[in-house]
Amino acid sequence: MKTIAFLAQKGGCGKTTLAIHLAVGDTDEQGSACIWKAAREADRPLVVPVHGAKLSEFLDVARDDGVTITMVDTSPRASALAG
Fold it and tell me: What pLDDT is stored for residue 9 in this prediction?
């Protein structure tokens, strides 16, 4: 499974916009992608809120469920996730 994470030290630089146009995962505490998804009527893309500490576990489950690509939106200063 391929995973692409959108990381930047600054907020408001377009991480969520990029992620939701390609997306499946939202580790941003603001939940911007989840708010966007809630306003849509379509089932896809799947947007799932995931706490950063649970991201690895979530990605393992997604892989086991047959997901082939994930996009991860992060909060600003998400340096712990970048490692």
Answer: 79
The closest of 75, 78, 73 to 3, measured between CA atoms, is 73
Cα separation, 57 vs 25, in Å, equals: 13
Q: What predicted TM-score, i.e. pTM, was given to this entire model?
A: 0.69
Quote the CA–CA distance of 79 and 56 in Å, as a whole number: 15
> What are the tens digits of pLDDT across the range 22-36?
765 667 778 888 888
- The residue behind tokens 């712990």 is 80
Distance CA 1, CA 66 (A): 8
Q: Show Cβ contacts of residue 47 under 8 Å, excluding neighbours closer than 6 positions.
A: 20, 23, 24, 25, 26, 33, 34, 36, 37
- 11 by DSSP, 3-state: which? coil
